[in-house]
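[Q] Does anyone have a clean C-alpha cell version of this?
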Amino acid sequence: MNLKASSTSHKILLFVIALIFIIDGGWQILKGTTSLTRRFRDEMRQNEPAASVAWLQIGLGVIMIVAGGVLLYSAFAGAY
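[A] Here you go.
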C-alpha cells in the first residue's frame, strides 16, 4: 500500500482542527472540575449542573484531547 504525502493545506487544516479539539477539551475539563470543586466546598450556584454532568464534561474533555492528539499525529505524519 502506497501512502501519499498529504498537501500542506490538509496538514494545516488538521492542525487547526486538532488545536480546536485540544483547547475545547481543556475547557470542558476545567468546567467539570470547577463544578465538582464548588460542589465539594458547598458553594453551589443556582444553575450548577449535577455531579454526573460534571463527570461527563471531564470525560468528554479527555476524549477530545485524545482525539486532538490523534489529529495532530495525523497532521505531522502526513498520512490519514
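[Q] Thanks! Anything notable?
[A] The chain has a mean pLDDT of 85.
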